[in-house]
Design brief:
Helices cover about 70% and strands about 0% of the residues. It is mostly helical and about 450 residues long.
C-alpha cells in the first residue's frame, strides 16, 4: 500500500475497487490509500516469511466474513433464469434422474471458480487482463468476442426471465417487462457507490429470497427422500440427454470466470507475504464452496419441484412461461406468486451481475477507461436488442435450451486460458495448479 493525496473521481468502472476491503478492517473510499495494480507475482522468499509477523493458522470466522462477498455475487450466475429454465426442463423430462449431473456440474464449476479467484489473488490481475497481456491481438479480440456472445445469451435469459416474473405479478406484457428490467439495472448498479459491502449484502439478500421461494414450492410437492437420493446415481432417462447438456451449460457460465477473477480484487491482500496470499486463497475458496452449495440446493429444489409433473405422467409441457400455470393449477395461486417472486429475484440479480461481467470483460480485454455510466450503457445496449426481439416474438421457450447448449460450447474459450495461466510458474510462482487439477 502506498499513500496517495488524490484519487480520481468515482466515475470509472474500476471504482468498484476503490473501496478496497482489508481482511483486518473495512476501509472506505476515504482511506487515503491505493493499491498498486501491478503484476503482483511473488518472487523468491520463504513461504512463511511474514516480515516478523506470526502466521495464524487458526480458522477465523471474522476473517471469513471480511472475505465474504465476491463468491456470492459469482454464485448468482448459477441461479439465473437460464439455470431455472434448465432445472425445470431437467425435472419435467428426467424427473429426479438428472440431479447427479447438476451435482457434477456444480462441483466442476467450484473447481474452476477457485482457479479464477486464485489467478487474481496471486497476480493482482483479472483473467481478461491476462488474456490481453499474454496473447496476440487477433486472439485477444477473438476471445473477447466469444465472451460477449456468452454474455448476450445469458442476458437474453435474464431479461426475459425477469419480464416473465413481472408479467405474473403485475400483468405487464413481456416487452414492457423487458424494457423495465433493462432500465432498472442502471438504478441498482449505482448501489456500489454506497460501498462494496452494501452491494454484496443486496445480492446475498436476493439469494436468500430465491432459497425461501423455491424451497417453499419444493416442500409443497412433498417429494420422496429415497427418490431424491436415487437421483445422485448417474444415468440418463429416456429423452433427456439434450436436457442434461443444457443443464450443464446453464450451470457453468464462461463469462463468470472473468467476473469472479475481477471481483476478488475488491479485497486488500499483502502480496509481499506468501502466507497472506495463502490465507486469501483459503477463505475465498471456503466462501465459494458455501455459496455454490447453496446454489446447488436451490437448483435441486427446482428440479425436485417440477419432477412432480414428470412422475405424474400427465404429459404436461412445462417451460419458463408455463411453469406458473402448472403451479397454479396444482397448488393454487400462492405457489404461483411465490414462484414469480423467486424468479424475479433470480432475474434481477443476474442481470446486474451480467452487466458487471460485461464491464470487466470489456475493460480487461480492450483496456478501456470509460465513465462507468457509459460502460453500463454500452454493455446494456449489446443485449437490449436481442432481448427485445425475443420479447416481442415471445420465443424464449424455444431459445432457452439452445442458449444453454451454446454456453457449454463457449466454455473452453474461457477455461483453456484460465488453465494455461494458473499452470504457469512465471505467473503463479508457488501457487500453480496441482497435476490432478490440470489432468481433471
Amino acid at each position: 500500500m502506498v499513500p496517495v493525496t488524490q484519487k480520481k473521481p468515482p466515475m470509472y468502472c474500476d471504482t468498484f475497487f476503490d473501496s478496497k476491503i482489508s481482511p483486518v478492517k473495512l476501509q472506505t473510499n476515504n482511506t487515503g490509500y491505493a493499491i498498486k495494480r501491478n503484476s503482483g507475482v511473488i518472487e523468491g522468499g520463504n513461504e512463511d516469511d511474514d516480515g516478523g509477523e506470526a502466521d495464524d493458522n487458526k480458522f477465523s470466522f471474522s476473517k471469513l466474513w471480511m472475505y465474504t462477498g465476491p463468491g456470492w455475487l459469482m454464485s448468482i450466475a448459477y441461479l439465473d433464469p437460464g439455470n431455472i429454465a434448465g432445472d425445470l426442463q431437467a425435472g419435467t423430462y428426467g424427473g429426479y434422474g438428472l440431479i447427479w449431473s447438476l451435482f457434477i456440474a456444480t462441483f466442476c464449476g467450484l473447481i474452476i471458480q477457485i482457479l479464477a479467484a486464485r489467478l487474481a489473488i496471486v497476480t493482482n490481475k483479472d483473467l481478461a487482463t491476462h488474456c490481453r497481456e499474454q496473447f496476440s491481438k487477433p486472439l485477444t479480440y477473438a476471445l473477447w468476442f466469444m465472451a460477449e456472445i456468452a454474455i448476450i445469451g445469458s442476458d437474453i435469459q435474464e431479461v426475459i426471465g425477469t419480464a416473465i416474473a413481472l408479467k405474473i405479478l403485475f400483468g405487464f406484457p413481456l416487452w414492457l417487462g423487458a424494457v423495465i428490467t433493462i432500465c432498472d439495472t442502471f438504478t441498482f448498479l449505482f448501489i456500489h457507490y454506497c460501498g462494496v459491502r452494501k452491494l454484496e449484502a443486496l445480492f446475498i439478500t436476493l439469494v436468500g429470497t430465491m432459497a425461501v421461494c423455491f424451497f417453499v414450492n419444493m416442500f409443497a410437492v412433498q417429494p420422496e427422500i429415497m427418490e431424491i437420493l436415487g437421483g445422485f446415481i448417474p444415468g440418463v432417462p429416456d429423452g433427456s440427454f439434450d436436457k442434461m447438456i443444457g443443464l450443464i451449460g446453464s450451470i457453468i457460465m464462461p463469462h463468470n470466470l472473468f467476473l469472479h477473477s475481477a471481483l476478488v480484487l475488491s479485497r486488500e491482500i499483502d502480496r509481499s507475504k506468501k502466507s497472506k496470499i495463502k490465507e486469501a486463497n483459503f477463505y475465498f475458496s471456503v466462501e465459494a464452496t458455501i455459496s455454490l452449495c447453496v446454489s446447488f440446493l436451490i437448483n435441486m429444489s427446482v428440479i425436485i419441484t417440477f419432477a412432480h409433473w414428470h412422475l405424474s405422467k400427465d404429459g404436461t409441457e412445462i417451460t419458463l412461461q408455463t411453469a406458473q400455470s402448472a403451479l397454479y393449477n396444482t397448488f393454487g395461486n400462492n405457489a404461483k406468486i411465490v414462484w414469480a417472486i423467486g424468479l424475479l429475484a433470480a432475474g434481477q440479480s443476474s442481470t446486474m451481475t451480467g452487466t458487471y461481467a460485461g464491464q470487466f470483460v470489456m475493460q480487461g480485454f480492450l483496456h478501456l477507461r470509460l465513465p462507468s455510466w457509459l460502460q453500463v450503457g454500452i454493455t446494456r445496449s449489446i443485449a437490449i436488442f436481442p432481448a427485445l426481439i425475443v420479447a416481442f416474438n415471445d420465443s424464449i421457450d424455444s431459445l432457452d435450451g439452445l442458449i444453454n447448449i451454446m454456453q457449454a460450447v463457449q466454455l473452453p474459450f474461457a477455461l483453456i486460458p484460465l488453465l494455461k495461466f494458473t499452470s504457469s510458474s512465471n505467473l503463479m510462482s508457488g501457487f500453480i495448479n496441482h497435476k490432478f487439477v490440470t489432468g481433471f
